Amino acid sequence: MKVRFAVLGISHETNTFSEVPADYESFRAGTLRRDEMFEAHRDSSYTIAGYIQGAGELGFEMAPLMYSVTGPIGTITKDAYDRLTAEMFGMLRDEGPWDGVLISNHGAAVSEEYPDMDAAFTASVREIVGPDVPVGMTLDMHSNISKETIENTDACVVWRTNPHMDPKLRGRKLAEIIYRTAKGEIKPVQWIEMTPMLVNIVKQFTGEEPMKTLVDDAIEANERSGILDTSVAEGYPYSDVVEMGMSFIAIADGDIDAAREASRWMALRGWEHRAALNEEQPGVEEALRMAGERYVGPKPDGVMNPVPSDGSALAAPVKDPVHGDLGPIVLMDVGDNIGGGSSADSTFILAEAQRTGVKKFLQSLYDPEAVQACVAAGVGAEVTLDVGAKTDDMHGEPVRVTGTVKAITDGVFEVTRPNHGGFKHFDSGISVKLDTTDEHTLLLTSKRAGNTTREGMYHAGIFPEEYRVVVAKGVVSPRPAYQPIAAEIILVNTPGVTTADLSFFDFKHRRVPLYPFEEATYG
Fold first, then answer.
1. Which residues pair with 9 in a beta bridge?
2. What is the pLDDT of residue 419?
């Protein structure tokens, strides 16, 4: 007889410093019910695709109930949480009994009522299904995981890559753990070590040290006898909550001592790298100066990097035998990290590029007002606009530009190559390509859209490969898109709601002591 698993979740990375609330309406477009979950994720590389794969390969029945997601913005309103959970928990309660539950949450969610929303969510699931039904959750690597969440679940599996290239793989792993638990083959017990430290957002790339070593440590610990899975969570530093920071999880088969020892070993190893995980990055002026010094030239016509067969999508730049690395210099706008909950309309880099006369410059800006003006003017029209910096007072001042409207699109596009998070369908809203008299190109969007794909530019007739300086509003998530074409990537510590300078924020609820805010001890 087949076992039957429920699948549900609320996925949100909550920037508690953002002034944009995550209300019910903001979740509407990302809410999927029943077969809509299959249709949206069957061919994706997201966590739910891993659950679907597990159902097919292991032979359990997957009952998709409801899944809701919105982009990283501010705190989830009580109304949104209550309405979403009332519906999905109603399904869970009414359509059981269940042999297992698979949850797809982000792991850094905060609501007005629940600072640790993921703990509250898993507590409700546990209350509904009872103590004997195995419950598992797959989490984003930027999750802030509490001991309560671990206590409410049988297994928590965290993605191991940033940019996030393995959600499907890790979802498949969790599906197997919960399946084997339901069949009585294993009895997972898990332990979490919460080190008194955070990882600055600019040091969270798992392809570089020291995060590469910490992931390697997790893989090594996973080889220990009796260990079912190991995870390292980088944490999300823009959520002002008690559990904010780095954590390490080990899941063992019935042996809590083995889980504790493996988790603690990983944590002690991570603690040794605390200083390197919090190094500073250049500001706007220095970064543009560096870009000017290091730019070589465009890539040869027709030369494109293939998507790597290993799925990493982080190919090395094409090399010219005379000039070396070719392609644009890509500036990561850390303070306007869309994937971290920022406004998507910071103008600090644009203003400096305009002031210093940088040519062949490309970036996107969320600006519905400017989009509307360009649409009214029409393709081919010349317009003068004040663009950007309209969400709040943390991301610069609007910049006046004059340019020609080159293209208007609906902003809807699909991505088939590997990308951060594994999503396939994207929507930046009505979007405009604007070429300015400063020799800048701006992609103006009417929805906040992450810079995690080149297709986001291609669909508007913009080819980043042809530019001298490309601004990607993110830190790590744009790497799969831009590293294959970039001569170099430079992280820029801009001001903003996701700045790397954490002294900018007034934390009221974080743990004390917490490195690097205070000296701390661990061990």
1. 67
2. 66
Q: CATH number of the domain at 4-278, please? A: 3.40.50.2300
Name the pTM for this structure.
0.83
Q: Which residues pair with 138 in a beta bridge?
A: 104, 157
Mean pLDDT of 153-166: 95
- H, E, C per residue of 106-167: CCECCECCCCCHHHHHHHHHHHHHCCCCCEEEEECCCCCCCHHHHHHCCEEEECCCCCCCCH
pLDDT tens for 323-350 read 445 789 999 999 998 877 788 999 999 9
Q: What is the pLDDT of residues 209-226, one digit of tens each?
A: 999 999 999 999 999 999
Check if the beta carbon of residue 64 is closer than 8 Å to that of residue 95. Answer: no
* Beta carbons of 21 and 75 less than 8 angstroms apart: yes
pLDDT band at 181 (very low <50, low <70, confident <90, very high): very high
| DSSP calls for 422-460 | G--EEE--SEEEEEETTSEEEEEESS---S--SHHHHTT
**Residue 427: φ, ψ to 5°:** -150, 110
Q: Is the pLDDT of residue 302 over 60?
A: no
Q: Using CA atoms, how far apart are residues 35 and 39, in angstroms rounded to an integer?
A: 6
Strands 188-194 and 412-414: unpaired
**Tokens linked to 437:** 């008299």
Nearest to 26 by CA among 40, 41, 14: 14
Q: What is the CA radius of gyration of the chain?
A: 23
Q: Where does 205-246 show beta strands of DSSP type E? A: 227-233
Q: Give yes or no for a contact between 416 and 424, defined as CB atoms under 8 angstroms apart.
A: yes
Q: How many helices (H) and strands (E) does the chain have?
A: 14, 21
Q: What is the mean pLDDT of residues 386-393?
A: 92
Helix axes 117-129, 78-94, angle to 10 degrees: 20
**What pLDDT is attached to residue 418?**
67
What was the pLDDT predicted at 314? 32
Q: What is the mean pLDDT of residues 358-368?
A: 95
447 Cα distance to chain centroid:
17
| H or E element, residue 387 | strand 382-387
The rounded distance, in Å, linking the Cα atoms of 305 and 299 is 11
Model pLDDT, residue 321: 42
User: Between 348-356 and 284-294, two packed helices, what is the crossing angle to 10 degrees?
Assistant: 50
State yes or no: pLDDT of 480 exceeds 90: no
CATH 3.40.50.2300 domain position(s) in the chain: 4-278
Asked whether 188 and 177 are in contact (CB, 8 A), the reply is yes
The amino acid occupying position 191 is W
Give me 175's structure tokens. 């599906």
Percent of the chain exceeding pLDDT 70 equals 93
Q: What is the DSSP string of 455-484?
A: HHHHTTT--GGG-SEEEESSSSTTHHHHTT
